[in-house]
């Protein structure tokens, strides 16, 4: 349900939809990066004043964290679906194809918001980078646990290094995100998925 907020820093109160404003902020961060997104960029896209932004969302850093929550809930929903797949190979396939669909969507900026900000190096973005890396570590740990279960069930060969396999899969995902951001087509990225699946270890 959309939340409507009225704020009145000066003069007449201004009412706006926080859900739409946050979605607009997400697109700005996704397109320009945390450091590249100015307050002017954000307020223009969100259709609100700077005082309204502070009143509804806090500062720029707090706004980014809320935008990242939205990104994970809406754009990374495939992660939870992937972890519920019946085999390790189908987990990996769902994970990769879900990433490709998100990274090459015609409705959103290309690439991956998390990859963009895990590589941010400016002092202003250090806390942002730390949060993104922590979130990635959490999802990576969930994937390790899923592959450990697959190994225990005989779905993965006994010799497989589950940690190494997970790191390999994430390297593929991050590489695809960089390529998508550089203009690679969905078809090109789907070929990478097919190649990865062709060499996937089977019991």
TrEMBL record:
It holds the Pfam family TetR_N. Transmembrane segments: none annotated. Residues 38-57 bind DNA. The lineage of its organism: Bacteria, Pseudomonadati, Pseudomonadota, Alphaproteobacteria, Sphingomonadales. InterPro entries: DNA-bd_HTH_TetR-type_CS, Homeodomain-like_sf, HTH_TetR, Tet_transcr_reg_TetR-rel_C_sf. Residues 15-75 form the HTH tetR-type domain. This is TetR/AcrR family transcriptional regulator. Keywords: DNA-binding, Transcription, Transcription regulation. It comes from the Bacteria.
């Amino acid at each position: 349900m959309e939340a409507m907020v009225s704020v009145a820093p000066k003069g007449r109160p201004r009412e706006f939809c926080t859900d739409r404003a946050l979605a607009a902020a997400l697109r700005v961060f996704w397109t320009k990066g945390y450091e590249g997104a100015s307050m002017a960029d954000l307020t223009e896209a969100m259709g609100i004043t700077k005082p309204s932004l502070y009143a509804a969302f806090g500062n720029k850093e707090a706004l980014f964290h809320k935008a990242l929550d939205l990104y994970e809930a809406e754009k990374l929903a495939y992660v939870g679906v992937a972890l519920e797949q019946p085999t390790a190979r189908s987990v990996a396939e769902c994970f990769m194809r879900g990433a490709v669909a998100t990274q090459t969507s015609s409705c959103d900026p290309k690439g991956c918001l998390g990859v963009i900000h895990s590589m941010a190096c400016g002092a202003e973005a250090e806390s942002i980078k730390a949060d993104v890396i922590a979130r990635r570590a959490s999802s990576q740990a969930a994937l390790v646990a899923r592959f450990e279960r697959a190994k225990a069930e005989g779905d993965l060969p006994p010799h497989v290094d589950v940690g190494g396999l997970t790191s390999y899969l994430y390297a593929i995902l991050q590489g695809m995100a960089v390529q998508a951001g550089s203009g690679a087509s969905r078809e090109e990225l789907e070929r990478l998925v097919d190649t990865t699946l062709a060499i996937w270890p089977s019991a």
